[in-house]
User: Which sequence fits this backbone?
C-alpha cells in the first residue's frame, strides 16, 4: 500500500514538473505596430475649369522597399527590415493614394483619375520610388525618399514625355523610434509632392 502511494506521489510530482516546463515555453503574443504615411496637401484648390484630365498610374516602388515592414539602412550595403513595425498598407499604395489626392487638390488639372478608369485621359503620370527608408548608417539618422516622375501626353499618338524629373529629400530624424521615421518620411514626401506641383504648374502645356 505504501509503495502504491509513493508511486502515485511521484507521478503527481512528475506531472507538476512537466506542467511547469510547458508553462515556461509559452511566450506572450508578438505585438506589431502599424503606421500610415498620411501625406496631406492642406487647403484644396478647385479643379481647373477646362483643364486636362490626368490619370495617375500605380506608384512603382523598388523591391527593396515595397514590403510593409519598415526598412533601415545600417551601412553602405547593409539593410534590415523591422518585423514588429509595419506600414498599414504597402508603400506603393500609400504613396499612390496620397499623390492622387494631392494633385486633385492642386487645381492644376480639370480631373485627376486612377489609371484603372475607362475614361481616356489627356495626360498620364508615371511614378517610380527608388528609395524609401530610414538611413541609420550615420548619426543622426535620416529619412530618405527618392522619386522619379514622367508625364506622358496621351493626346499625341506617339505619347511623348512632356515632363521628367527626379526628386530626392533627406529629413533628419528627431528620435530613434519608428514613429520618428514615419514623420521624417512624411516630411520628405510632402516636400517632393510640393515641388512636383510647382513644376507641373509652370509647364507651358498646363498654363
Assistant:
Amino acid at each position: 500500500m505504501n509503495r502504491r502511494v509513493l508511486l502515485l506521489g511521484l507521478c503527481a510530482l512528475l506531472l507538476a514538473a512537466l506542467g511547469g516546463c510547458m508553462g515556461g515555453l509559452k511566450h506572450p503574443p508578438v505585438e506589431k505596430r502599424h503606421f500610415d504615411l498620411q501625406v496631406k496637401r492642406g487647403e484644396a484648390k478647385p479643379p481647373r475649369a477646362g483643364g486636362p484630365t490626368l490619370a495617375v498610374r500605380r506608384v512603382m516602388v523598388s523591391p527593396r522597399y515595397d514590403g510593409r515592414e519598415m526598412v533601415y539602412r545600417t551601412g553602405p550595403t547593409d539593410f534590415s527590415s523591422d518585423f514588429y513595425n509595419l506600414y498599414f498598407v504597402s508603400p506603393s499604395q500609400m504613396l499612390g493614394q496620397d499623390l492622387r489626392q494631392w494633385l486633385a487638390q492642386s487645381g492644376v488639372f480639370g480631373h485627376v483619375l486612377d489609371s484603372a478608369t475607362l475614361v481616356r485621359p489627356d495626360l498620364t503620370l508615371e511614378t517610380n520610388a527608388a528609395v524609401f527608408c530610414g538611413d541609420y548608417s550615420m548619426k543622426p539618422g535620416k529619412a530618405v525618399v527618392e522619386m522619379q516622375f514622367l508625364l506622358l501626353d496621351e493626346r499625341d499618338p506617339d505619347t511623348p514625355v512632356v515632363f521628367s524629373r527626379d526628386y530626392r529629400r533627406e529629413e533628419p530624424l528627431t528620435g530613434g523610434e519608428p514613429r520618428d521615421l514615419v514623420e521624417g518620411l512624411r516630411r520628405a514626401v510632402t516636400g517632393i509632392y510640393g515641388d512636383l506641383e510647382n513644376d507641373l504648374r509652370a509647364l507651358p502645356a498646363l498654363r
